[in-house]
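The following record pairs a protein chain with its ligand, L263DTV3.
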Amino acid sequence: MKTLMGKGDAKVNTFIDSMRASSPTRAENQDQVPTWIFYNPSALKMFEEIVYNSRGKQIVTFLDYDGTLSPIVSDPDKAFMTEKMRATLKDIAMHFPTAIVSGRSVDKVYNFVQLTELYYAGSHGMDIRGPTKSRSHKKINEGVLFQAASQFLPMINEVYKILVEKTKSVQGAMVESNKFCLSVHFRCVDEKNWAALAEKVRLVLNEYPKLRITQGRKVLEIRPSIKWDKGKALDFVLESLGYNNSNNVFPIYIGDDRTDEDAFKVLSSRSQGVGILVSQIPKETNASYTLQDPSEVEQFLHRLVEWRRKSSHSHKLYVVDNFKKLTLP
Ligand SMILES: O=P(O)(O)OC[C@H]1O[C@H](O[C@H]2O[C@H](CO)[C@@H](O)[C@H](O)[C@H]2O)[C@H](O)[C@@H](O)[C@@H]1O
């Protein structure tokens, strides 16, 4: 994971190139495309291979939110997913234990997704809630399973206020609170001001050695310096489902961001399941397959539901029964 604590022009230029590359609109180097397709084929084209490899195992789906279930938009508060996606997610959750793993706070991502039957791992996995039966969104708090960084809450709130103040002079800059993490958005800031904005963030964070900065898609993310990330959250959910040391599980993790690479790495080290990167352009990744955008993610999930519906009735009963046992009261 890249940090932004170095000094000097070279470091700043690297940061700006990397920030630009985090949300590109087209492949810079078309020569890379054939190799990329060879090593990271489409999960839709390889669907039969993926489900064949899952045979006899419990599929558990893990889904990032921004850029995976919803399109990337300029205003983070308007990153809505489609009704079609919501319906497909509902179907997916009927057949497989399903978790949303996001940099957003649980409350925010729940407000977008609005499905009580899912696990939610918000704040980059630092806040994990289990499924609830209640339809009231306030009841999502009943399902708290794990909070890795509660002691950092006062510090995060303090830094949020300072960052809002320090960055307000930069046009287009926005600081978002995600409970245990913060996001400083660059998307609406003129590129010529990116280095200055990053420097402001760095100066504030210099005073808080217990926090670290990582980079996402035109965003700097501030989070506690603890060894916890989306990969650890994936492990935690699998463990709470009873698949700690089991070979009978096939996790499918779909995500588009650098932070999702931690989860892809965990899958490869467990030698289990598949990681699917959502990207239209070649990127260095630990995922095995790719999907182009949220509409392809929806198609893939839909095919998974259809495939499960066609497979044996007895298996389906096992899955639903297993899921019920895990639902919190
Ligand atoms: O882990 P995720 O669910 O992918 O969350 C990561 C960040 O997503 C959001 O920012 C990104 O999407 C915004 C809306 O499309 C976009 O404007 C921004 O440029 C992207 O970085 C969210 O606002 C952040 O707080 C999350 O950390």
